[in-house]
Amino acid sequence: MTEQSDKQMEEESKNHTDVDIEEGDAFGTGEEHLSQLQDHLREGDEAAVKELFEDLHYADAADILQQLKSDDRTQVYQIVGDELDPDIMSELDDDILEEVVEEMGATQVAQAIIEMDTDDALAVIEELDEEDQKEVLEALPHGERTVLLEGLSFPEDSAGRLMQRDLVSVPAFWTVGETLDYLRSDVDLPDDFYEIFVVDAKYNPLGTVQLSKLMRNKRPVRLGNLMEEQLTTIPVETDQEDVAFIFRDRDLVSAPVVDDDARLLGVITVDDVLDVIDEEHEEDIMRMGGVTQDEFYSSAMDAAKSRVWWLVVNLGTAILASIVIGLFSGTIEQLVALAVLMPIVASMGGNAGTQTLTIAVRAIAMNELTPANTIRVVGKEVTVGCVNGVIFAVLIGVATWAWFGDGALAGVIAVAMVVNMVVAGLAGALIPVALDRFGADPAISSSVFLTTVTDVVGFFAFLGLAALVLL
């Protein structure tokens, strides 16, 4: 009997493992599902389209929708209709979301928003243009509309926009038994929650009780004796970058959001903070490239208009560097080797400065670069620039001497290399600090200023020294 039981358990374990592997295969197979969906659409197999979307996680479904052509997406909306998972909308790119809203209509979108968590619903509403936003809000019931309008009243990218309004709060004098009875009877509780907020008569948060701790204690025990009193509360107008920093710095899973009177308004959970970190990281990368938003799904004309002003700024800085070269046109005419070598000095300075710039921008974003340590950090980067400058001065000096057989020219480019590498280290550290002090985002325009400095200094140092020493 024991052998039979063992065999049965082994077989069940094997079956269970097979199921897990099969389910796990669904993750990361977007191309396969996309191909299947396109085949179903071409064949007009509406039942297969519905079945595919029922089996997919909403994030995977959103990815597949975004990869479809506009006409195919429209066909999917018409087939799936009301059965489309509402959470898919919160995962869509802004341009695709607007298309979905236009196709589904305000009433259907409003119905989908009612089924979402408040933070996801607000994230969808705030991305709509003013006209669509108004239509969807008017289609919502009064209660949901009031909550979303209050959320929209908070500053953009603030804790108030990020928080979820659905939470569980109870007074400190309640017992474990009373709390459990409340949790079992109340129909308006969040779908998922892991802790209970303990509040006073003014609805100020006093502490939290984890569900695991609640379940392990006897019914007569009061929550005031069980709660964890060390709370990290977040003011409702706190910028979402600061919220992410607080979560990362204090290893939080969730945190209560409070108003100016310290009353509990909502809760921010770590899954929303992960989205913020990803969003801010993406935004910084886009801005450093001169792109203000994710243009992957936008039209060619919209993308062109978004990029043109940044290119105008770059054109201006390029002209400035060309003016410096023009000042030494006579020198270049007399020694053609200068025209061959001068891009090397500017390029090396630009690359070295970008390395420093990346470190500085990241340190500012992480609140690691402060007024207290700015001088030390700048000094370190200047030292690094000096060391690397000497190393590459020797390399380029030897290469120039071997190439052109001119020791004086080799000395000129070596000195210019050291000068520009030191300036690159100094500028790469100071430019983002200065922009941050003046309230500008250092990720947006630091690279333009840095490139201008390293090009101008590089050309001026090399060509100026050449004019003095060689001619």
How is this structure best described in words?
Strands 1-2-3 form a three-stranded mixed beta sheet. The chain has three domains: 11-162, MgtE N-terminal domain-like (MgtE N-terminal fold, Alpha Horseshoe), CATH 1.25.60; 169-270, CBS-domain (Roll); 300-469, Tetracycline Repressor, domain 2, CATH 1.10.357. It is mainly α. The chain has helices spanning 2-24, 30-43, 46-55, 58-67, 70-80, 94-104, 106-114, 118-127, 130-138, 142-153, 159-162, 176-185, 211-215, 240-250, 270-288, 300-327, 329-334, 337-365, 374-404, 407-437, 442-469, and strands at 169-171, 195-199, 205-210, 234-235, 254-258, 264-269. The protein is built from 21 helices and six strands. The model is unreliable at 1-29 (pLDDT under 50). The chain is globular, with a radius of gyration of 30 Å.
Task: Supply database-style keywords.
471 residues; mainly alpha; MgtE N-terminal fold; Tetracycline Repressor, domain 2; three-stranded mixed β-sheet; 21 helices; 6 strands; globular
- For this structure, the CATH topology of the largest domain is Tetracycline Repressor, domain 2
In CATH terms, the superfamily of the largest domain is: SLC41 divalent cation transporters, integral membrane domain
Question: Order of strands across the widest beta sheet?
Answer: 1-2-3
Distance between the termini: 102 Å
CATH class of the largest domain: Mainly Alpha
Largest sheet: 3 strands, mixed
The secondary structure category is: mainly alpha
Q: Which second-level CATH architecture of the largest domain applies?
A: Orthogonal Bundle
The coarse silhouette is globular
**What is the radius of gyration computed over CA atoms, rounded to a whole number of angstroms?**
30 Å
Q: Count every helix, treating DSSP H or I runs of 4 or more residues as helices.
A: 21
Share of residues in helices: 55-70%
The arrangement of helices and strands along the chain is HHHHHHHHHHHEHEEHEHEEHHHHHHH
Please provide the count of β strands: 6
Name the beta content range. Answer: 5-15%
Low-pLDDT parts are 1-29
Mean pLDDT: 84
